[in-house]
């Protein structure tokens, strides 16, 4: 289990930083920025310069990646039902991701913004969950078909 945890942590760091950097580039371009910004102007203004803001952002992206990558290990607990795994995974990822998103300056900490973030998180979670279940079902059907052919 320690080996799986270590591997997932490394995968989370790499994927979190990569996804965070790519998304921040996309948002910089979409906002018509002349120079790269790792997050919102208000977030960057908290630092001595864009380099320290970028380093802090990379740390947050790495932690976000770890939350999701290590959180996926919940689905390896074989004596839990899929419903229990899903509910626990949703809670772990939401409550692990929420403070990091707040620290990243993605939204101000107030009830309306928190509600909007929560709705978006749940909608995205459900979309990914449904897609994953469809893929898993197709894989299971394919494996069952191959077994029947033997």
Automatic annotation (TrEMBL):
The keyword Kinase applies. It comes from the Bacteria. This is Histidine kinase. GO terms for molecular function: kinase activity. The chain crosses the membrane at residues 7-30, 50-75, 87-108, 114-136. Keywords: Kinase, Membrane, Transferase, Transmembrane, Transmembrane helix. It holds the Pfam family DUF3021.
